[in-house]
Write a structure and sequence with these properties.
single chain, mainly alpha
């Protein structure tokens, strides 16, 4: 068992906190992107149901917006992984 402060201290080092922050950041990025794309797709389907004649324009705009959200998500995940990669034990 951990009995002394010296044995507990490495759990709260800067490297551990950086890893924890990078993991939480990556999770928040994925949750935010999923919420954004879901909201985008739901509104696009609703607008297509209301006005079927603009289906093509709405679909193209939805795909472009989803691609931009995905691009930002991948960039944010690369940043989080970069932060996690700088951890030195």
């Amino acid at each position: 068992m951990l009995s002394t402060l010296a044995e507990v201290a490495p759990l709260f080092s800067n490297a551990g906190l950086m890893g924890l922050g990078a993991g939480i950041g990556a999770g928040l990025v994925c949750i935010g992107a999923a919420k954004g794309i879901g909201h985008l797709a739901g509104n696009a389907v609703e607008s297509m149901a209301r006005q079927p004649q603009v289906k093509g324009n709405v679909f193209v705009a939805m795909i472009i917006a989803a691609a931009l959200i995905e691009g930002f998500t991948f960039f944010a995940l690369v940043v989080c992984n970069g932060i996690a990669g700088k951890i030195t034990a």
